[in-house]
Amino acid sequence: MSQTVLRLKDAAIYQRESLILSEVNIEIKKGEFVYLIGKTGTGKSSFMKTLYGDLPLTEGEGSIVDYDLRSLKEKEIPFLRRKLGVVFQDFKLLNDRNVRDNLLFVLKATGWKDKQAMDNRIEEVLGKVGMKTKGFKNPYQLSGGEQQRIAIARALLNDPELILADEPTGNLDPQTSVEVMEVLQAISNNGNTILMATHDYALLLKYPSKTLKCDGQKVFEVVQKNV
Ligand SMILES: Nc1ncnc2c1ncn2[C@@H]1O[C@H](COP(=O)(O)OP(=O)(O)OP(=O)(O)O)[C@@H](O)[C@H]1O
């Protein structure tokens, strides 16, 4: 049976008092790769932020990886985020430590204790993004594409039920975007569920998949020829 990892019903997304999106009805099932597209300012980031608990859901219903977004408490947010892998446009790596220590930092912060288990997990996720040899580099010694691969590795550490990627190729040139997209595709083919906000239509054409569009304060599914 297909399992729902995200469902919003008649939801409205606000930034303070401003209504950004209304009557949002969407469902994402385990294993799907879903794009979220829309012109700048149409609410993609606001939508993503609501999903990872950065903006409260105050209208409608929302459940994500078994958390109810309407009743989500501040203290539950770190636990929700452990079940999500979040990837940002600007990587958000810690520049004062190397790649391995960036990953170790997250493992320790999420309750891992066993040194060997942590080392193994770091090797494993670096392998998944093709960065096994770069563990001792500092983020600033890596290209943008390499930094984003590390950010994806970091998102994978706790085996997330859903990966939320907000414009993951937004800071990358077209060739590097394709390379990062190949990594995301491989992860998706491995069974991971991914929601990716993007305005990169070239990627959509190259890697067609289910697509949601933000437009006119609404979110709706589009078929590729209409995007
Ligand atoms: N912190 C904030 N406070 C108030 N309004 C905000 C805030 N952040 C965004 N907005 C407004 O919410 C609307 C949607 O912005 P959002 O960043 O979600 O769009 P977006 O589709 O992700 O755009 P982009 O592609 O440029 O990132 C915009 O009108 C924006 O001005």
Main traits of this protein?
10 strands, Rossmann fold, four-stranded antiparallel β-sheet, six-stranded mixed β-sheet, alpha/beta, binds adenosine-5'-triphosphate, 7 helices, 33% helix, globular, 227 residues, single chain
Describe this entry's structure for a reader.
InterPro entries: AAA+_ATPase, ABC_transporter-like_ATP-bd, ABC_transporter-like_CS, ABC_transpr_LolD-like, P-loop_NTPase. Pfam families: ABC_tran (PF00005). Keywords: ATP-binding, Nucleotide-binding. Residues 6-227 form the ABC transporter domain. It comes from Salinimicrobium marinum. With 227 residues, the protein is of the alpha/beta class. It has one domain (4-226): 3-Layer(aba) Sandwich (Rossmann fold), CATH 3.40.50.300. The protein has 7 helices and 10 strands. It has helices at residues 44-51, 77-83, 99-109, 115-128, 144-156, 174-189, 201-206, and strands spanning 4-15, 18-29, 33-37, 59-64, 67-68, 84-88, 162-166, 194-197, 210-215, 218-222. The strands form 2 sheets. It has a 6-stranded mixed β-sheet, sandwiched between helices. α6 links the parallel β7 (162-166) and β8. α4 crosses α5 (144-156) and α5 (144-156) runs parallel beside α6 (174-189). The longest helix is centred in the C-terminal third of the chain and has 16 residues, at 174-189. It is globular. The model has no long low-confidence stretch (mean pLDDT 95). Adenosine-5'-triphosphate (ATP) binds at residues 15-16, 18, 20, 38, 40-46, 199. The site of adenosine-5'-triphosphate has 13 residues, from β2 and α1.
